Amino acid sequence: MATILAIESSCDETAVAIVENGKLLADVISSQVEVHAKYGGVMPEIASRLHAENITIVLQEALIKSNKKLEDIDAFAVTRGPGLIGALHVGMQAAKTLAMLYQKPLIPVHHLAGHIYANEYIEKLTYPLLAVVVSGGNSEFVLMKEEMSFEVVGQTRDDAIGECYDKVARVLGLPYPGGVPIDRLAKEGHHTYNLPIPLKGEDTLDLSYSGLKTNVINFVHNLEQKGEKVNVADMCKSFQDVAVGELIKRTIKAVKKYSVKKIVLAGGVSANSYLREQMKLEMSKLNVDVLIPPLWCCTDNAAMIGKVAEKLYDKKVFAPLNIGVDPNWEISNYLHFE
Ligand code: KG4
Question: What is the model's pTM?
Fold first, then answer.
């Protein structure tokens, strides 16, 4: 075991964590959400610039909180992908520079592996399991037969579920990130709008959220053209029932297909209260155990990157200093750095 400093900068959070022998010594996050909220979504250029401005401040704070010096660090870990290319580069350059300067290994971590292993701050994962990874950029079912083995068995064919929440929120006049207000308002609304079911009748573990998003947008615009207004709470409820309902339907299918008795939720959308509640309910009917991350590690953070880095450190999975970021890194390819 070792002392590892982990950096996360794949989207709109600049984060640094320090972990030592499985213990989280510091977990510092600087969120850009308020800046991007003005634009209704993440502006990649602004994200990169803010990461560059904040990275050293966050780094310094993590060192102070953990009472460590850079000389005490045994390895530098960083999110290599997937994510926004410019944003990823800031974290990667920082980690490479530190690894070079202090002559310590560089550990590249897959962002979604981080989201999955964030659950280990609650309990150790047992295998086989199905990870339901739902975030602003990804929606996928990952079958894990053993530790650090990832097989994508289903995924979105177009938009991620979080992106869909954010775009639907925007057309309904709700603030970014849209998942939070939709989750809240859906509790006050009724399922009165009939939205078409994506991939209806298809025997697949894939998901699709682009059509659902477009349907809501068109529906709202059509009403506006007639001088009418959508009932926002009812639309939130109608939309969420379909968005989460489809995810749960496919999860049930995957669980049966691969005979797993354990699922874990991962990623920002796993903060959704309706998803958490319905997933537990439906899985209990199948005798499947559900592990749900606490809210503090649903959204992006570096603690989850540190958790994976510890496993890679033990396996001596280190990268050369000429490694680049990979905005589209496939989780099943996490050992390939070319
Ligand atoms: O994992 P994350 O912080 O960033 C990515 O790596 O993408 O996820 C952010 C996404 C956003 O799309 C946000 O709207 C969504 O997670 N989200 C939610 C909720 N809280 C955050 N979606 C649905 N319900 C929520 N309560």
Answer: 0.94
